[in-house]
Every structure is written in C-alpha cells, then in structure tokens.
C-alpha cells in the first residue's frame, strides 16, 4: 500500500473521531472505522425492513469472515477457525477440553491478564500446577522455556503483555514446544491487528483473540484457531444445533460433532458482530498488515522518544524494538499513576492505568502530533 493510500484510508475511516480526544487506548477498546458503522447501520436497516429474509446471505458473510481471519493470521484453512464470544471462552474451551493428569504442569508468565491466568488456575483441583514465570530478565523467551520439564503439557502465553507491552518471540517458543511435544496456546488479543501474525510460522496449536482491540471491531466476538491435527483431542462441553456436522438438517435425530472448528460453536452465530468485524478486518486487509505494523512501530518509537525527552516521565516498558508492539507503559516522577490517569482522562487523553504506570496504546492511524500533544499534557501534570 502506498503512503497516499494510507492517508486516504485514515482520512476517510477515522474522520469522525472526536477532535477533542486523543485516543491512545486501543489495547482496551478501540474506536470503529466508519465502514464498520456503515455495516452495522445497513444490517440493522435490513432487519427492520425484511427480518431474516436474507439469512442465506448472512451465512455467506459468516463464512467470509472466517476466510478474512484465516488470511489475517495465515491459518491453513478457514475451517480451523471458530467464532466464539470472547478470548476467555476460547481459553476455557482449551483448558477444560484437554484431559489432564495429576502432576501435569502449565507454564505461563506472571504478567498475564486474568483471562489467561484464572482459566489455568481453575485446573488446580485436578492436580495441575501453574508455573507463573518472571519475564523481567534479558531473555523472557528463554525464561519460559527453562521453566518447562517432562511434565509440562502446555505453554500458555500472551503474544504481547497487556500492561508492560512486552512482545515475545513466538517463533522461538513455538519451535521449542513443537520439538518437545508441548502444546502451545497463544492469547493474541494484543497483537492481531497491530502486527503481522502467522499462526503457522509460530507453530501455535491454539490462538484466540477478541475483535474489539487492534482489529477495530465490536465486543462480543472472537476467533479461536485450533490446529486440525489436535482438534479432536479437545473434549466438548457445550452442545447445540450449530456444532453438529449436518447443522441445517433440523429433522435429523442422529448427529456427530462437526469435523471443522465449528464443533466449538454450540448455538446461533452473532450475526450483527459478524457483519461489523468483517468490515473492520476489511480495513486491515486493505491497508496491509506489514504497512500497519511499520506505521505503528514508527508511532511507538516517536512515543518512546517523547517520553525519554520529557522532564517528568519515565519509561517502564522494555525499549528494544524486538520486544515492542503497540503498548507503552510509563510513570510520572511526581504523581501516582492512578492520579495521572484520572487527570489525563479529564483532559481528553484516552488511556489506561495498568500495572505501576499509565498505558498509552496508539494505532497505525494515530498522528504523531496527537502523540506529542499527549506526552506534553502528561509531562505538565503536577
């Protein structure tokens, strides 16, 4: 994509964003592009005017979204993808679908969002140990690898840590896991839509992510990738009409679970969010993830430079480019991070208080002028 085309996309899709706000919170819930609003409005109007008359076309949109996601993460085929409510549901499908034995262990980090911690802690009554590893050293990937042993069944990690912004080398971890027959589960909610993702290159067995952060879509819809070779190792705990092989033959009394990842979808799909997320992902694919990642990296470096040049702000995120995606954590030398967060929000800088600092998370379309202004505002607080 040319720079001119990128500017055209930004101007056409994000022109409605409130000019009184500096939106630096894509790691929480992102604004929609205009094409997503249009898709939702059209779907709503269609429901009002003709109900479900066009349901066959809606089903085609559902399949098209799977194809879009498959392209976005380089899944082998779109049948490897299920559409679930959220990342937590997908993680629960894995945690409570696998067969565990007392003495098994799971390796993860001590920085995980609760979704990627609680679900594994819930296996404690089965005798499963959760090892939460400190990633603060020079080589966080090796720290995770070194924590595994012959009883490690699964390594579960976020591609990018939600608070610190630490980005991990998933190819290194995934290669090790595949070589040692350890299942590899990636919570990719803080990377898909921000950086180029290749689920095959990183050798993930499972990957999941909601659409409402870097993918610029709605809440209430997530993808769940499950590698075909291990799909039937996941025991099902939710059943309904949509997860069976012949799901459109309603009078059939015998059934079997679908051979595709649709087996993890027990009931009716969220058609409204499907239309919305499809529109949002179309923007990412139009812009090109390599270009989006490059633009976001440029914005993040501008943000780091601004923090390092300020009088009162201190960078908390790891600064080396190989371990960065779209999240930067910092603190104020004179203010509590919670106080700084509240002041920034009152002044229209949309951000988050996370860990011991304030988190800024711009996207590719965020202007450097806005980033500089936000740093200036944060630096000036007393």
Structurally, how many domains make up the residues? 2
Q: What is the count of β-strands? A: 13
- State the CATH superfamily name of the largest domain: Type I PLP-dependent aspartate aminotransferase-like (Major domain)
Poorly predicted runs are none
Structural class: alpha/beta
CATH architecture of the largest domain: 3-Layer(aba) Sandwich
**In what order do the strands lie side by side in the largest sheet?**
2-8-7-6-5-3-4
What is the radius of gyration?
Answer: 21 Å
Task: List the helices and strands in order.
Answer: HEHHEHEHEHEHEEEHHEEHEEEH
Broad CATH class of the largest domain: Alpha Beta
**Strand-residue fraction?**
5-15%
End-to-end span in angstroms?
43 Å
Question: Can you give the mean pLDDT?
Answer: 96
Notable traits:
13 strands; 7-stranded mixed β-sheet; 2 domains; alpha/beta; about 375 residues; Aspartate Aminotransferase, domain 1; Aspartate Aminotransferase, domain 2
Structure notes:
With 382 residues, the chain is α/β, with parallel strands linked by helices. The chain folds into two domains: 3-29 and 289-380, Alpha-Beta Complex (Aspartate Aminotransferase, domain 1); 44-286, 3-Layer(aba) Sandwich (Aspartate Aminotransferase, domain 2), CATH 3.40.640.10. 37% of the residues lie in helices and 14% in strands. It has eleven helices and 13 strands. The chain has a seven-stranded mixed β-sheet with strand order 2-8-7-6-5-3-4, sandwiched between helices. It has a four-stranded antiparallel β-sheet with strand order 9-10-13-12, covered by helices on one side. Strands 1-11 form a two-stranded parallel sheet. Strand 3 (105-109), helix 5 and strand 4 (129-133) form a beta-alpha-beta unit. Helix 2 (34-50) packs antiparallel against helix 8. The chain starts with a helix and ends with a helix. The mean pLDDT is 96.
């Amino acid at each position: 994509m040319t720079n001119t085309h990128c500017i055209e996309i930004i101007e056409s899709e994000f022109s409605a964003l409130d000019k009184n706000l500096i939106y630096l919170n894509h790691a929480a819930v992102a604004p929609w592009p205009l094409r997503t609003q249009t898709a939702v409005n059209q779907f709503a109007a269609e429901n009002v005017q003709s109900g479900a008359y066009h349901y066959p076309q809606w089903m085609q949109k559902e399949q098209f979204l799977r194809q879009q996601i498959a392209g976005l993460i380089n899944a082998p085929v779109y049948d490897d993808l299920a559409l679930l409510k959220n990342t937590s549901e997908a993680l629960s499908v894995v945690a409570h679908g696998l067969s565990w034995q007392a003495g098994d262990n799971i390796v993860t980090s001590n920085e995980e969002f609760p979704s990627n911690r609680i679900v594994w802690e819930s296996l404690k009554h089965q005798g499963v140990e959760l090892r939460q590893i400190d990633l603060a050293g020079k080589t966080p990937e090796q720290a995770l690898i070194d924590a595994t042993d012959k009883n490690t069944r699964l390594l579960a990690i976020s591609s990018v840590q939600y608070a610190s912004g630490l980005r991990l080398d998933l190819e290194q971890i995934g290669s090790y896991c595949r070589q040692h027959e350890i299942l590899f589960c990636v919570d990719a909610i803080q990377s898909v839509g921000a950086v180029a993702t290749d689920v095959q290159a990183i050798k993930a067995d499972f990957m999941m992510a909601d659409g409402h952060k870097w993918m610029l879509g709605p809440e209430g819809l997530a993808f769940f990738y499950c590698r075909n070779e291990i799909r039937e190792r996941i025991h099902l705990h939710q059943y309904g009409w949509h997860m069976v092989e012949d799901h459109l033959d309603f009078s059939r009394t015998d059934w079997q679970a679908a051979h595709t990842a649709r087996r993890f979808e027990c009931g009716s799909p969220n058609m409204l969010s499907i239309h919305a997320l499809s529109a949002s992902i179309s923007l990412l694919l139009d812009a090109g993830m390599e270009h989006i990642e490059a633009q976001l990296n440029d914005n993040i470096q501008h943000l780091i430079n601004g923090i390092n040049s300020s009088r009162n702000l201190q960078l908390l995120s790891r600064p080396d480019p190989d371990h960065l995606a779209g999240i930067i954590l910092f603190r104020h030398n004179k203010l509590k991070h919670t106080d700084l967060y509240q002041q920034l929000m009152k002044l229209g800088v949309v951000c988050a208080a996370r860990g011991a600092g304030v988190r800024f998370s711009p996207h590719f379309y965020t202007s450097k002028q806005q980033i500089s202004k936000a740093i200036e505002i944060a630096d000036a607080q007393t």
